[in-house]
Amino acid sequence: MTVPHDDLISRRFFLRAWALPPKTEVTVGTAAPDRHGACWQAEATYRTTAAGALDLSAQPALTGRFRGVDPAGPVWSLRPRPDHTPAFFEVPEKGMTLTVRLSAGECVLEETTVRRLTHSPDLRETPVREDGLYGSLFSPAPGTDLRGACLCLGGSEGGLYSPVAALLASEGFLVLNLAYFGVPDSGLPENLINLPLEYFGQAAAWLRARPEVAGRRVGVTGASKGAEAALLVGATFPQDIGAVAAFAPSGLVFEGIDRAGTFPPGPPMSSWSFRGQPWPYLPYHTDWAAFFAAGPQPMTPVHRRAARQASAAQIAAATIPAERVAGSVLLVSGGEDQVWHAAELAEVAQQRREAAGRPSRHLTHPHAGHHLSLPGLPTYIHGLWTLGGKEQANAHLQFQAWEAQLETLAAIWA
Questions:
Q1: How far apart are CA 75 and CA 100, in angstroms?
Q2: What is the pLDDT of residue 262?
Q3: Strand order of the sheet with strand 195-196?
């Protein structure tokens, strides 16, 4: 049995086996412990060829949590045991240890254990606490020929979330993983309200000044509210930003978020500001106390209502001038996104790019949801927020979008 060993999660999984019983149903079972030691499992059945071969890249799954040809299925379909409901698969520090077992009935034909890495072992992480910035600089191993450099932004969860930045650096990029609110004792704002875009411009200038970058333009990538920020930053600082990769994005600016009260209990305020003035935005029209009292539910209707009740003038003012982004723009969205209607909101930016004759690419899947930025992991999600999307669609779009992101960011220096 051949499977990838000690490879990054962004490298597509495969399985090939020979000398198996011909034309026989076999089961591919996978298991992996999460960071807390809880075991996640999956299995699917296949039929071997007349020559006794099995290739998940060519042969369809007959039973399991997915159907059809999907070589990555044994990984993304991993689930926790029924009595254990974590929010998502938390990867152990040294990566996912995946056991792969091939069996026919009660007979184990082959078994092997491999590691799927969330970052390269020789990756370097350096805290950044200067010039008012708060983040981490992820650098590939010394001697690596850089493919580019970029800012990496998280979403409305705030804080400093590093897995995407670490994986990008493992792919050959110099990455400034930038926090912009919600880090206690950091000097950053606690809430996502009137955050100055100049902070991101300062971060881009800091990254360009690095000797490895030598003044070349950098990219910016973000997800969800971070994608909204990425589009704004690219449009506001085209002299510094050479490309934008926006996952589950919005081409419109929505109201800011008060973490202390979950959402603003008082007068609405913008998420962003520029030159001391709030950026125009679409206010919500929702009773948040009643909304959260009802338990986990989609937020897309909230955002649709905000857009529907806005005037034409409000829509025009809150629209991000995406045509000002100097380089390429990658937009990634799911048609079943249940946080906001990202597929339609991405089209707002796409249409402005097209009207201006500027390059852009919109990758979308009708059955994908909101959680799209990191490939190669179990797509099971359970929690307060309803993120939407079918697990298989999410997995497919994550891989496609990750590869497109690498192309978009590398094109700046090409």
A1: 10
A2: 52
A3: 195-196, 272-274, 277-278
